[in-house]
Amino acid sequence: MDIRSVYKAGRKAICIGVLTVLVPIAACLITDRIITGETDLIRNKNFFFSITYSGTSFPVIHILLSELKILNSELGRLGLSAAIVSDMVSVLLVNIGNWVNNVGVKGSKAVLEDMGLTIAFVVIVFLVLRPGMKWFARRTPEGGKINDVFLYAAVLLFMLSPTVTSLFRAAILFGPFFLGLATPDGPPLGSTLVEKFEPLVSGIFLPLFVSTCGMRMDLEFVQKPNKYAKDQIVAALVTLIFKFFVSLALPLSFKMPKQDSLALAFIMITKGVFEIGVYSMFFDAAVISEDIFNIMSIMTVLLASIVPIAVRKLYDPSRKYLSYKKRSILNSKVNEDLRVIGCIHVPGNVKSIINMLNACSPSKESPIALDVLHLVKLSGRATPLFIAHQKHGHGIARFESSYSENIVLAFNQFERDNWEAVSVNVFTAVSPRNLMYEDICNLAMNNLTSFIILPFHRRYNADGSIESEDQAIRSLNCSILDKSPCSVGILVEGHRSINHSNSIDSTLSSDSSPGIAVIFLGGKDDREALALARRISIGQRVGLTVIHIKPSKAIRIILADDDSDTILNDEMLRITKEIKNIRYIEKEVNDGPETSTFLRPLLNDYQLVIAGRRYGMEDPQTFGLEEWIEFKEIGIIGDLVSSQDFGGNYSVLIVQQQQLQLIGNIA
Question: Fewer CB in a 10 Å sphere around the end CB: N or C, the chain?
Fold first, then answer.
């Protein structure tokens, strides 16, 4: 858990986190008083029961959101922030309840000593242990392994924390909870501790614990509960109902959509392994009877089963990506900024994207507004991060900027080198690999982006051998192609990097050695690729060739194409041919092998090749090539020209035009 997220949670999350605990507790205590007639509800166990009934456990919420794959969605981030606040409020109330109860037993002087010891424990944890752990973490080289002596000292500290907590006369859960909050999240310490603890805790202890709790359940006690158990069932149900409606009303008051508010209400009432653990502790300590333990355990299991189904039905984050506005290069105005997102996974992607944009030769007449998004795998922390580096000042922001410091410096230099032609903003998203598409799509939606550039999952060495391959990146690229609210390009880096100085010449004529080639077969993706080429040609500083491959005359007679798509293709080509500094090559072919034979010697003269993805399209020009395709996400032509057998000394940009989707037909 990241304690800093409490400060950054915002008014909405703080209100939801606090009120969804306090209001249900009040409702529970009032219900207890009406049913039992007891007047002092703070000085007995009913107060602690009410905290358990109304609490929102951060680990349970985190597990639920992870399973639903909405951890870094807008709703997921709000739920996590509210859960952190709720956990803090619950822990505080438990300690206040202990102190109030102890006044009558130990006296006020002893309680004041307990309070002083608890405050001293918090001070030691946050002002001594946390700075010490940060100091050790800073001494570890970036990407290096933390010292084993310090690591095992931290592990031993966690193991001893319940005993140490009892010495400070605080609740037993208080110590591990605050020690966990004080531990610096992320690499090197947080991620290493997770790697050490996760297999043992989540893989062995947790399943065993849940299994033994399940074995202790006896349905006979559910059938014949005593009066006190019946009273607690009523109190728990009233608490649950109040918590649900408070969790629903607050988001609605903040103008959240009804379905999202309902989904959040279900998220906030969910229960799980934490509550099972609390009831088990109460049962072991003879605080609750066996019938209450069984009934509350069954309620927890029912909620844990129902809530995921309800949330999945109510909330689909990809709904917001459904766009009826055309956000593509083709539909962007030539004299306005082309809004582009460039995604970075590894340092090598920085050079690839900068070289590609340099090859496109941005100019004042055709400016680019570039949002650079550095994607970092979530490790050693529970809450996803989204950092806008251009807004950084001091303190927390400066600490977070270490994630992308070199990337920020590189793209700031790129902006200076292309002053008034390129404007750059850099962001960092720290989230699980399978959910990174949410960060990319959200940024594209918020910034009205027209084009997203994604690095290909495979990188090559200069000799053509594979340098690295990441299937998680491939899966992410496929998710973006399916869900993106704008046009997408996948950049396959060639064996020879794009050389700006070789490809750009302000006095370039049509007879000069060209730098960029566009392969055009027809279809909306190819038209999008051609629209990009037209923007590149505006500055007249780059050699550009359009290679139009079309079926032979005999095949065209048989096909007799006269649909709207063909008309659009012809119109696009007509406009392109009128641009003086674009070289136009036309070739008629009978099948795919003929296309391959024609392109193989031709493309080696270029630094960058642009082609449409054309997914699912069948044409005579590609007939016979489908069975050899290795990566469907870059299409037949993209897979062909970027293959090792084809040469691959150039980089390839595969373009897919924005997919306009209808509700219920999400790709």
Answer: C
Q: What is residue 394's predicted lDDT score, i.e. its pLDDT?
A: 40
Cβ atoms of 140 and 149 within 8 Å: the answer is no
Q: State the Cα–Cα distance between residues 422 and 411, nearest whole angstrom.
A: 10
Given pLDDT bands bounded at 50, 70 and 90, which one contains residue 401?
A: very low
Q: What is the pLDDT of residues 548-591, one digit of tens each?
A: 988 887 676 666 555 677 888 888 888 888 877 788 888 888 88
Q: What is the pTM of this model?
A: 0.80
276: amino acid identity, one letter? I
The pair of structure tokens assigned to 513 is: 């050695």
Checking if the pLDDT of 245 tops 90, the result is yes
Are 261 and 66 contacting, i.e. CB atoms less than 8 angstroms apart? no
Q: Of 492, 460, 499, whose CA–CA distance to 477 is shortest?
A: 492
Residue 590, Cα to own-chain centre: how many angstroms?
A: 45
CA angle at 618 for the pair 613 and 624, rounded to the nearest 5°: 100
Give 141-172 as a 3 state SS string: CCCCCCCHHHHHHHHHHHHHHHHHHHHCCCCC
Nearest to 130 by CA among 189, 195, 201: 189
Who has greater pLDDT, 14 or 190? 14
What's the half-sphere exposure (Cβ side, CA atoms, 13 Å) at 339?
A: 16
Q: What would the two tokens of residue 330 be?
A: 């083709």
> Which residue from 202, 249, 349 is spatially nearest to 20, judged by alpha carbons?
249
Burial, 258: exposed, middle or buried (Cβ in 10 Å; 0-12, 13-18, 19+)? exposed
**What contacts 24+ positions apart, CB below 8 Å, involve 137-145?**
137/184, 137/188, 137/189, 140/188, 140/189, 144/188, 145/188, 145/192
| Spatial contact of 627 and 454, defined as CB atoms under 8 Å apart | no
Containing 422, the helix (H) or strand (E) segment is strand 422-431
The 3-state secondary structure of 523-561 reads CHHHHHHHHHHHHHHCCCCECEEEEEEEECHHHHHHHCC
* Separation between Cα atoms, residue 331 and residue 518, nearest integer Å: 19
H helices of 69-129, in order, are 74-106, 108-124
Rama region for 243: left / alpha / beta (φ>0; ψ in -120 to 50; rest): alpha
Pairing mode, strands 338-344 and 368-377: parallel
| Matching residue, tokens 């007249």 | 540
Residue-wise pLDDT for 24-82, tens only, equals: 999 988 888 888 777 666 666 778 888 888 888 888 998 899 888 888 888 888 898 89
Which domains are assigned to the chain? 3-315 (1.20.1530.20), 329-391+402-498+512-656 (3.40.50.620)
Nearest alpha carbon to residue 239 among 47, 85, 72, 468: 47
User: HEC states along 174-234?
Assistant: HHHHHHHHHCCCCCCHHHHHHHHHHHHHHHHHHHHHHHHHHHHCCCHHHHCCCHHHHHHHH
